[in-house]
Amino acid sequence: MKNLGFIGAGRMATALARGCVTANLVGAEGVLASDPHQPSREKFAEELPGARVTGENAAVLSECDTVVLAVKPQMMDGVLAEIRPHVEGRHLLVSIAAGVTLERLARQLPASTRLIRVMPNTPCLIGQGASAFALDAAATAEDAAMVERLLASVGKSYEVEEPLLDAVTGLSGSGPAFVYTVIEAMAAGGVAGGLSPELALELATQTAAGAAAMVAQTGLSPAELRSHVTSPNGTTLAGLNALAERNGSAAIQAAVEAATNRSIELGKS
């Protein structure tokens, strides 16, 4: 990749740019980000020495072939109207705006613009992202491979059909907030048992990280791993029974489904 542009220089754009530079996909000097907010430009340049910033979106299209649209969904229409005269056949546009469909993007850009829509999540900020992406009809296999490499620099990525991005949004996009809630609740239980808030949070955080790593590294299902921890009439079973009495698992599933449905609604607006 010779160059990489960003329209929007916020935290996610910074994380993606840093990941690509660290993975040697592009040199820092080949990164150019635009943002109307000067502090955002300054922060981007500070966190990625050697990268360039500008207040002009057109400059990014002029210099870069691959451009990531890293703006808030409500700003997207205005940005597309501004950049449309500058989009050429050489460009690949990658949108990370939640709920903004490929059809909506294509409608406001020149015909046959190559487009890829990505749903990242906030753990991308620490290189532990779980992202999914979908291609429009004009995007090529080479485009898909390039975006896959880009996302791999900040975690794991998966190609899906676009309608599935709503479920991805509900699961991995919103999911970190659900996991934080579980960690918070576990820590509160520890405090109720007499642990200090600091120790309880550390234990809950490491327990969640360790359990996730067990799923990822052993190849065993969550149900199998759960059975390894659960002894007849033991402490774990008592806790699981308390969860079942309060529909804990059903509540988490409902949270993912509600977030998915909201993503569908936003895509229609």
UniProtKB/TrEMBL annotation:
Database matches in SUPFAM superfamilies: 6-phosphogluconate dehydrogenase C-terminal domain-like, NAD(P)-binding Rossmann-fold domains
Domain of life per record: Bacteria
EC number(s) on file: 1.5.1.2
Keyword NADP in annotation: yes
UniProt keyword annotations, A-Z: Amino-acid biosynthesis, Cytoplasm, NADP, Oxidoreductase, Proline biosynthesis
Top EC category: oxidoreductase
GO MF terms held by the record: pyrroline-5-carboxylate reductase activity
Main localisation: cytoplasm
Domain Pyrroline-5-carboxylate reductase dimerisation: 162-266
Record's subcellular location: Cytoplasm
Positions annotated to bind NADPH: N57
Domain Pyrroline-5-carboxylate reductase catalytic N-terminal: start-end pairs: 4-99
Presence of keyword Cytoplasm: yes
Biological process terms in GO annotation: L-proline biosynthetic process
Any coiled-coil regions, as ranges: none
Family the UniProt entry places it in: Belongs to the pyrroline-5-carboxylate reductase family.
PANTHER family noted in UniProt: PYRROLINE-5-CARBOXYLATE REDUCTASE (PTHR11645), PYRROLINE-5-CARBOXYLATE REDUCTASE 3 (PTHR11645:SF0)
Job description of the protein: Catalyzes the reduction of 1-pyrroline-5-carboxylate (PCA) to L-proline.
Name of this chain's protein: Pyrroline-5-carboxylate reductase
Organism, scientific name: Lacipirellula limnantheis
